[in-house]
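Target protein
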Amino acid sequence: MKLSLPFCCLLFCAGLFAQSATTSPESIVDNYCTAAREQKQSLDGSSMEVEIHASLPKLKKNGRLHALRHISKLGRITYERLAFEGDGTVKNQVIARYLAAEIEAQKDPAPALAVTPANYKFNYKGRKDVDGRAAHVFAVSPKKNGVGLFKGEVWIDAATYLRVQESGYWVKNPSIFLKKVAFIRKYEIRDGISVPLQVASVVDTRVWGQAQLEIDFSNFSVDAPQAVLAPSDGQ
């Protein structure tokens, strides 16, 4: 059957409309929230090595900490220090305070900190490439000021809808020692999970001036579930 030109145009336009509907900013955010919920349990009970390089440029002091970062089954973050070298001021006044601030920011229930429409306003900015992958970029701003919330951007992988980058600054600092914390967090997608890769932060402190931190993550692993032994016949 031969279709008339106007009817063909209608079919073509209908196809474009259907395609745009499935890739609307709202549907991208919905898919992102679904992907985040599905991967949350994959991160709980995980561990990774952390290498933290910190400096106080004004004082020309540096330090490096190697640690293990644990995420409990309840989603809480803790650190196990392995080795440190460098200046003690950097260790105690920069690295230790930064890690304590991250842990303090996790005290609120996880749903209250999640980067979702329940807590943030999303504004679509367009598509960009990050490390060879196409990503949807959204400007996000929290609906309230709270510790652990930030204002900035979220980059969502166009293929998996997992986060690949977050950037911005904390809207409320958990410590009076910190005046402002700006950051860029990068993630890599490994086996369908968005895994932390690197965090670069610039921290304005009230005593020591500006502090710079670069945090690299490696050797991500998930704790194996404990086997349940069946009772023997003699029991």
The beta strands are 46-56, 61-71, 77-86, 120-130, 133-142, 150-157, 163-170, 178-190, 193-205, 210-222. Residues 30 and 116 are 9 Å apart (CA to CA). Confidence is low (pLDDT under 50) at residues 1-5, 7-21, 225-235. The radius of gyration is 22 Å.
